Amino acid sequence: MRKDINLIVFVIICALIPQMSFGLSTAEMLGYDSDARVLIINADDFGMCHAENEATMDLLQSGGISSSTIMVPCGWFREAAKFCVENPTLDVGVHLTLTAEWGDYKWGGVASSSAIPSLLTWEGFFPESELYVELHGDADEVKTELTAQVEKAITFGITPTHIDNHMGSVYGLAFGKDFFDAIFNISREYNLPFRLPRKLSPPWTEAIPEARQAELIALADSMVNEGFVLPDYLKVISDYGDSYEDALNAYSNMIKNLEPGVTELYIHAAVESDEIKAITSRWRNRDYDYRVFDSAEMRNLIESEGIHLIGWADLQQLQIERMQNETVIESGVTVPTEMRLMQNYPNPFNPTTSITYTLEKRRLVDVKVYNALGKEVEPLIHGYQEPGQYQIQFSAKELPSGVYFCTLKSGTEEQTIKMVLTK
To answer: Which in 80, 100, 227, 374 has the greatest CB count within 10 A?
Structure first.
């Protein structure tokens, strides 16, 4: 009898391994060896201005970087969005924005100003400082605005792979007032992994109070245990030196000293132009970023160091898999723990998507799809089903682009997910 119990426990543990990290790095969870150095090079501020767009688009197409994040509220967003639609295989996420730090170049929110008053200055723009957001921002308004930015990106035809945050305004780095509830709700709802490193290293360990560092690491651990996928490390250059050669050497040293695991290095690339010079006095650093990662020296170094260059889509797929793997094993039989309708994948989709749900007991179920007006467009399932996991392939070939809702109903219980069809 005791051997049978031990066997059941062993089977349970084996079944749960894909869901639990057990101290594995994100690189190991992706299937790499424990000593593998895996790198994401992300260009922030895509869409901020034309000079940023020129550099970012060039680096994405040439492979000098592996991903980028787009600033939806900014004036050059449309040009960046058009590029994303024309290049759908490239990894582009949303650079969630609550600040406008440049002196004479400003932007406001995507949501109505009446819906986000705590996030705007008297001029109607986002504030210059992330401290303003932390001190004055209302949590519900933050969620409203950030959700609106993701929705607008999707409406313009972008299929985002991840989210991060401009100037760290949601992290609560100064006073501990963060907006992570909104961030991880968006991460779960839209299948978008978020930039929160599991381990902190310079310059973060030098700039963030130790107590806050401990809180961020604990939060990252708890999010990973819930199925979210986060990079192991986050890197940025803070000292470029006085020349392009200094910048190249600084980045080269960083690359050579990468720790095992997944590191995201984020940069800000722009071509030299009158536009970027008028926006920021630190334009030269952005020019260096563009030139360094457009150089053969940097590409050769990454290759010679044996570093694996990946995009955020790899983390996105792993997060989707982990979020859907929440079953336990009893006597060798998979038994879901609850009735649950999971987020469809892919989402946004065109024209087909997979809808997955679990039942913890025999139930009479209805699965239906509705349009944004609440009109039923297709009944998918009606009848009794046994405990287990089910997957439906839904085709929207004959439907127009837009937002749709899928419901799973059994008795008085009902669950709904939002699906976005883009054609």
So the answer is: 80
